[in-house]
Amino acid sequence: MKALDKITGFINEVKMELGKVSWSTREELIGSTSVVIVLTAILALFIFVVDSCLAKILSIIFKA
């Protein structure tokens, strides 16, 4: 029964700690998600452009 008491105590402590958490509002969550999606798209575009340029440069170098 000692193990069951430890598990129950742990679950109660987790509930108390989750009650202290400052949860984001829906608007904050949507704003943060939008920023992450936009920055990911910009970074993906940048990597695509750099990769394309490097591929073109290397194809010119190795054809010569």
What level of helicity do the residues show?
over 70%
Average of the residue pLDDT scores: 94
* SS field, number of helical segments: 2
DSSP strand (E) fraction? under 5%
* Euclidean distance between termini CA atoms: 78 Å
Q: Biggest sheet, open or closed, and with what strands and sense?
A: none
Gross morphology: elongated
Q: Would you list the SSEs in sequence order as H and E?
A: HH
Over the alpha carbons, how many angstroms does the gyration radius reach? 26 Å
Structural class of the secondary elements?
mainly alpha
Q: Can you tell me the residue ranges where pLDDT is under 50 for at least 5 consecutive residues?
A: none
* Number of E strands: 0
Describe this structure in words.
- The chain has helices at residues 2-20, 26-63.
- With 64 residues, it is mainly α.
- The radius of gyration is 26 Å and the shape is elongated.
- It starts with a helix and ends with a helix.
Features:
64 residues; mainly alpha; 2 helices
Give a nutshell description of this structure:
The chain is mainly alpha-helical and about 60 residues long. It is built from 2 helices and no strands. It has a domain at about 25-64.
Write the layout of secondary structure elements.
Elements: H1 2-20, H2 26-63
